[in-house]
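Example 3.2
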Amino acid sequence: MKIIDALKFTQGAVSKKEFIPALTHFRIEGGHIRSFNGTLALSCPIAIDLDCIPKAEPLIKAIEQCDETVTLSLTKGRLNVKSGKFKASIPCFTEDDTPHVYPTGTEMQIDGEALIKGLKVCAPFMADDASQAWAMGVCLGNQSMYATNNIAAVEYWVGSTMPHCIIPKPCVSELLRIHDAPYKVQVERTSITFHYEGERWLRTQVIDADYPDFDTLLNVESNQKPIDEKIFEGLVKIKPFLDKMAHVYFFNGLMSSVSNTYEGANYELGDDTMEGIYHHGTLLKLKGVAHTIDFSKYPKPCPFFGERLRGVIVGMLEAI
């Protein structure tokens, strides 16, 4: 692996805050490079036969400017980068004892391809509300994964055994950024590590919380009908006219930005049976994911289904 590729693989776990200076640095030793921001850690092999702890940001910038063969050397606590006529001196952390971590826990083989496919589906349904930490990630368990933003909830069937834990949003983002399929995990009570071919790994702390009872929420009878693509066309058209609550109103065969036909904007659907109020952004997340839905359940949660997927979306309790 080229030096720049190794830096790019591991840069996602470099701390952006200076509270613990060592975490804004890479740890290079034994032919591997590691990063750790206090929650997330990344590691992969690197073609540098040196042991040092260089500042991450300037090292990446320096390597990006190297057009010819790169020569690296250590002088008085600094990593020197030379390529042709270009030279840069990178400050290094001088204390050998740093918080950088290694994988720990029990090993388990997983279906990495199914994991990545499921995360792509579930990631948009994660919450941003820090007061409900359990919703700010994806829950793995049995043969499924779950996510909710408290307006919609989804279950994606992976089809193979998964460790039971909640992986936080930053880890989900990195797994999707890396995109490669991990082939095994190491699991302990407080962390999970995803291993890739080529001696690469991603380690994260897990969210210490209990997830809600999804089976009770999702195991409901329904009368499923194909989702009309005109719904998503209409959501795009009326978006500029929505208020700060982003409510979308369905009545009299229309989708509207307000609760009447005299103001705002509306879009003709031609389906007089669809009534209710939904959150615009969450409803739009169903595009390309849900194939069928039962809107007749409103104001109760409306079940929907897709490939290896089931979920519910909750309507807004506001008078039309």
